[in-house]
Design brief:
379 residues; alpha/beta; Rossmann fold; 2 domains; 8-stranded mixed sheet; 5-stranded parallel sheet; 17% strand; globular
Amino acid sequence: MRRIVKRLLDLRLPRGGSAFLWGPRRAGKTWWLRHEFVTERDWVIDLLKTDEYADYAARPSLLRERWDGRRVVIDEVQQVPALLDEVHGLIESRGASFLLTGSSARKLRRGHANLLAGRARRHEMGPLSFLEVEGFDLERAMQSGLLPPLYLSEEPETDLRAYVADYLKEEIAAEAAARNIPAFAEFLRAAALTNAELVNYTNIARETGVSAKVVKGYFEILEDTLLGSRLRAWTRSRKRRMIAADKFYFFDVGVANHLARRRPVLGSSDFGKSFEHYIWMELTSYRRYRDPDLELSYWRTSTGYEVDFILGEMRAAVEVKGSARVHEGDLRGLAALAEEAKARRRIVVCLEPMPRKLEGVEILPWKIFVERLHAGDLA
């Protein structure tokens, strides 16, 4: 039976402290607030409720007038950017404590909203990790993704379709971040088809029917609304000519597969690509909750040698293989990298049932890799 256990997020506010909690829609922020954070003594303002939104949009000063000394939780604060001036004032003049959640800082930045200038710590919540789910099903995760309500859904495909439609309506149209919604929808599909690959703005622009400059702006929208992130290239090579272009990963494997209309089946090339994406999600989950300063990158030469992920300054070099058996030929990228830089650990993450070593490389089953990663043993 699939069941969500305690989330990995560990957010504790010191007395008088404040924080932002960012995360994409449906990542579970509101559920976590209600079940793991909010107490009876807190004052909760939910700006997705029509009446509360109307009150504070019309008169942001109500926050100051109503504040009675309690800790304040404001859910989806980007809905009323002007509230942040009142939050700032209450922190400065009265030592008030706030937890502010949101799914996009784009609207705040575009409106030059007050982001509290370091007076609030930044935290993020993302899709589920293997460690947060009892009865985790890898193949199901490829199809449904790991947003909690979608992974647990009896009809994930239907719910994914609704989620994407709601995103286009609420995050893009409502924020006026993209005026040409049909073109943006085409962009989403083109970007999903090249998910986890080198970003080629010109090719995506050709498929989308807009300019490369507009495509770059669309990718910025995805990053600002927490629906994707770039993976930079590790380019400090001495011997080989390196590829320096970024890769791009959607925030969730199920959303990417839905947009690309892929149904990854074990053993297929689509499964291998989705499996790499899933490992990326676990790496970003570890960084999000345990090591925010961890740098992630990839390594690729102009002649085609590649390593999927570099953790920090060569703390670990990680290759991902969606197969049940790793062979010597699967180690070529790691061997080529070893001629350029010495990684403390070289690892292949795969579907093999037991860990082993092959030519000095650790072959790790994916579950063991994820457990060791989150325990801090790898990075």
